[in-house]
Write a structure and sequence with these properties.
By secondary structure, the protein is α+β, with helices and mostly antiparallel strands. Helices cover 46% and strands 12% of the residues. It is rod-shaped, with a radius of gyration of 24 Å.
Length: 94
Amino acid sequence: MYKKLFLGTTLIATLLLAACHSGQTNTPRAIKMQGQSGKMDRYSDYGHYAVCNDPSHSVPWRGSLWRDKERAMQDAHDHNAANPGHNAVVESTN
């Protein structure tokens, strides 16, 4: 009897823990993936971004802030491909 009661409570506790853990978004894996994404965060003191000063923009276009210069260069390339004649370049915050 005690063995069945122990197994039942263990099963219920395991299911409850699994249900609570599945809705959690700050898992170590998610945090690691976010850190490796290259996006800037508040702990970074450097960054690169694409900017386009074409007169067709009412305000100069700015891409996302990235740690990696290559990603900012990709943003500039994508902007130039989508808008023929524009000359987006990469700038640095430091």
